[in-house]
């Protein structure tokens, strides 16, 4: 019992003792009323003190955890860059690339995810830019299908190639390789649809993926229906993707991931016209066990071969990139990237890129500093050499910070 309750109780007992007559004498009416009022006041004070100081009943563990269980994991990621270009009419193709000399808010990304129940997980990525808010991804993933199957449905990045399904905050360089923007659009290859993946029972990791998405989207499907209003009349009018991913453990310090992909769907140049894009990618990683926190070497390359049927002919081009990034110390990394793209028509007959009449290549290098796992600063320079015009020089200084439950950057 609290101290105040003890004091009041003892006071009540003492007053009752003194109020009791030493000998059997009748009490007067005034004394009786006074004693009754005093006892009532003490009883009231005692009840109030007990109610005020009594501890609350402990909350069960399940009830206490219910709030956090129902709330999704949230994270905010900021990407902002200062940029300089030697020419105002640069050839950046990424929707999150720095686009002018000065400052560019590349994105503020809100990532949310949580297991809904034993059967589904829900993930969403909302991107805020000066142009507005974009639902970059919002999809459900199955968790309990038999036979090593898994399904994703909603607005999702397709798993074509390597970099397409990776969000900008996880890129090794500040800007998007121009091969992705050229083939799919500034925002990469994503849209509403469904994906099925199967993990094979082979002795090494082999995953087979198939998806169907909307073939429309100027920012996401420019080689296909783009911004046209061509309707979807048959199953052949959706954009189909197939991919095979293989992972090999080459040793305690080396690992290799390879993939082949195919995207096929209608294009907007006329009835029955189609576009096919075949891709191949490779990711090689060295991370010694003895220096896992401060040494790492990554080699990544990806190439896309595109065939587009247009009235009277077929346009063919190839684009790709290769880069090397080395973590030379716990907080420092350096990297270099080479990009190359052939012309689809040297006479200017490519309806998507009529100025692209000769090969184009771009060289980039960067230096990255990681203050912690949740922030990084990148200094990047590049020279873009399109064969049909003068070179374009560019320099970027980019800052990225993240807060919340999103995965941290590794050293």
User: What's the level 1 CATH class of the largest domain?
Assistant: Mainly Beta
Spatial ordering of strands, largest sheet: 1-2-3-4-5-6-7-8-9-10-11-12-13-14-15-16
Taken from the alpha-carbon principal axes, the silhouette is: globular
Do you know the CATH topology of the largest domain? Porin
Radius of gyration over alpha carbons?
Answer: 34 Å
Number of helical stretches of at least 4 residues = 4
Would you identify the CATH architecture of the largest domain?
Answer: Beta Barrel
Q: Characterize the biggest β-sheet.
A: 16 strands, antiparallel, barrel
Structural class, from helix and strand content? mainly beta
CA-CA gap between termini: 56 Å
The stretches of 5 or more residues where confidence is low (pLDDT under 50) are: 1-33, 49-57
Q: Name the CATH homologous superfamily of the largest domain.
A: Porin
**Which range does the strand content fall in?**
over 45%
N-to-C series of helices and strands: HHHEEEEEHEEEEEEEEEEE
Number of strands: 16
Helical content, roughly?
10-25%
The chain-level mean pLDDT equals 86
Total count of domains: 2
Which helices and strands, and how do they pair?
Layout: H1 3-19, H2 29-53, H3 61-70, E1 73-85, E2 102-115, E3 120-129, E4 132-142, E5 149-157, H4 178-183, E6 190-199, E7 205-213, E8 239-249, E9 254-266, E10 274-286, E11 296-310, E12 313-329, E13 332-341, E14 360-372, E15 375-386, E16 392-404
Helix pairs in contact: 1-2
């Amino acid at each position: 019992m609290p101290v105040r309750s003890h004091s009041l109780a003892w006071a009540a007992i003492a007053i009752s003792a003194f109020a009791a007559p030493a000998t059997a004498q009748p009490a007067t009416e005034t004394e009786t009323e006074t004693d009754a009022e005093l006892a009532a006041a003490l009883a009231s004070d005692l009840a109030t003190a007990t109610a005020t100081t009594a501890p609350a009943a402990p909350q069960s563990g399940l009830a206490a955890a219910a709030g956090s269980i129902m709330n999704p994991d949230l994270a905010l990621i900021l990407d902002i860059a200062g940029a300089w270009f030697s020419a105002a009419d640069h050839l950046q193709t990424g929707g999150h690339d720095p686009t002018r000399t000065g400052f560019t808010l590349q994105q503020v990304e809100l990532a949310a995810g949580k297991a809904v129940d034993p059967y589904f997980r829900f993930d969403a990525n909302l991107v805020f830019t000066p142009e507005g808010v974009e639902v970059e991804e919002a999809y459900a993933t199955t968790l309990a299908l038999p036979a090593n199957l898994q399904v994703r449905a909603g607005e999702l990045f397709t798993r074509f190639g390597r970099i397409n399904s990776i969000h900008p905050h996880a890129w090794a360089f500040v800007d998007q390789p121009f091969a992705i923007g050229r083939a799919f659009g500034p925002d990469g290859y994503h849209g509403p649809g469904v994906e099925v993946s199967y993990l094979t029972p082979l002795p090494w990791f082999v995953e087979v993926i198939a998806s169907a998405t909307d073939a429309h989207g100027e920012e996401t499907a420019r080689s296909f229906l783009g911004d046209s209003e061509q309707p979807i009349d048959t199953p052949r009018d959706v954009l189909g993707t197939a991919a095979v991913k293989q992972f090999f453990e080459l040793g305690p310090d080396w690992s290799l991931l390879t993939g082949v992909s195919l995207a096929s769907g209608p294009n907007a140049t006329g009835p029955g016209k189609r576009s096919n894009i075949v891709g191949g990618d490779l990711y090689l990683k060295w991370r010694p066990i003895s220096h896992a926190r401060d040494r790492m070497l990554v080699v990544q390359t990806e190439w896309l071969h595109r065939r587009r049927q247009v009235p009277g002919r077929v346009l063919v081009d190839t684009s790709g990139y290769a880069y090397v990034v080395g973590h030379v110390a716990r907080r420092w990394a350096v990297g270099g990237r080479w990009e190359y793209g052939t012309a689809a028509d040297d006479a200017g007959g490519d309806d998507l890129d009529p100025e692209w009449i000769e090969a184009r290549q771009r060289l980039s290098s960067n230096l990255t500093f990681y203050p912690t796992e949740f922030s990084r600063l990148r200094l990047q320079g590049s020279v873009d050499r399109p064969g049909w015009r003068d070179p374009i020089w560019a320099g970027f200084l980019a800052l990225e910070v993240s807060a919340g439950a999103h995965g941290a950057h590794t050293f």
